[in-house]
Structure formats: C-alpha cells, structure tokens
Write a structure and sequence with these properties.
Blueprint: E1 5-14, E2 17-26, E3 31-36, H1 46-54, E4 60-66, H2 68-71, H3 80-95, E5 101-106, H4 108-120, E6 124-128, H5 143-147, E7 153-158, E8 176-178, E9 181-185, E10 190-196, H6 213-231
Parallel strand pairs: 3-4, 3-5, 5-6, 6-7, 7-10
Antiparallel strand pairs: 1-2, 2-4, 8-9, 9-10
Helix pairs in contact: 1-6, 3-4
InterPro entries: AB_hydrolase_fold (IPR029058), KANL3/Tex30_Abhydrolase (IPR046879), NSL3/Tex30 (IPR026555)
Organism: Streptomyces capillispiralis
Protein name: KANL3/Tex30 alpha/beta hydrolase-like domain-containing protein
Length: 232
Amino acid sequence: MTSDTTDSTETVETDAGTARITWHRARRPRLVLAAGHGAGGGIEARDLRALAAALPAHGVTVALVEQPWRVAGRKVAPAPKTLDAGWRGVWPALAAPGLPVVSGGRSAGARVACRTATELGARAVLALSFPLHPPGRPEKSRAEELLGAGVPTLVVQGGNDPFGRPAEFPGYGGGRDRAGARTVVGDGWAYDLVEVAHGDHGLAVPKRAGITQEEAVAVVTDAVVRWAASLA
C-alpha cells in the first residue's frame, strides 16, 4: 500500500527574511492549501497538523508556511505589513506546482490570508480561528479584513474563542445552514462558517464538553475536505 503524501521542506527568501515551507504533497493533487501559523505558535498547531495529515488523501497538497520571524527564532511576531511581505514572498513557490492555491492560516495567519487573497490571485481563503477582535474588546473589530477577502472563504471557529465567538461574526444570525456549515451573506460579501463546539482559540475543548479532542479536530478536517471538494 502506498502513502497518499510525500513530504519535503524548502526555504524561500522574502523581503521579510527567510521563510520555510513544509510540503505534504498529494499524489494526484488538484489544489494547494497554503497555511500560515499564528502569532503565538508555529505549524505544530493541532489543526494545521491534522489538515496536513488528512487532505493529501483527498487530492489537496498542503504547504505549511513558517514566517521569517519564526524561522529566525524570534518570539514576537512583527507588524501586519511585515507578515504580509513574508506571505507575498513565498507565494511564487506556493504557485509553482501550477495548481489553484487556497490561501489559509490560523489566527494572525488567517488575517494575512484575507488581506492578500485578491492581490495574489488566491482561489479561496481558509480562516482558522479568525481573531475577530482582541479578547474583551469587541469594539476593535477586524471584520473588514474578513469580509474584504474577495474570494470564497471558510471560517472555522471555536465556540468559546475569546477572540470572537461564532455568534459575534457579521451576519451570523441570518446565515443558512448547509452540509455542516453556516453560509453568511451580506451586501457584497459572503463566507461560510463552521463552529467547533466548546473550542477555544487553539480549538482545544475541555474534558467536560461532551466532545473529545479527536472529535473536535475531525470537525475541522471534515469541513475543510467538503469545502475543498466544492472548489475543484
């Protein structure tokens, strides 16, 4: 029995420094999912690892991108414009296979994906744990970044995420449920949202939640597999 994926790592020079891409390649790919990490961690995040393990079997090559600040060993993420510069710098390598590229990431990485999607020609955006606002500061909304992505967008959000619970997202109350996702449509914008019940910003669930951590991660991978199939 052969594996569905072959893995490799490459470094890429960008205007923000040296970035690193870890490839998890599908044997018969139809899409590339490029996923960046957040400001508080790297590509070892549970959702990123799970997607890298699950998606190649469904024809999606996963490229986990480490921003230059992380590769350099710094502990504090730089300003958004520097993060965007790093993402722009790796894009040619992400597009090199000649496949449509889904621009994605978790937390700060999701914001980068949204801000640059149209400019870079992304096929779609995957926003994991989108930080809608700083904890306890709902008036500091970043909804404009999400709604301005300009391409099909899937948000996967923990039900207890202090950076923005699903019900806080624009238009959520009027959304339509379909295939496990809530489709939210507004004036000139639309996105899909999947809730991970009881999940926090890292999509961790408490033991009393009635859902195991493995089941919570499966919500993420199953939702992304279905959504990616709709993009092909």
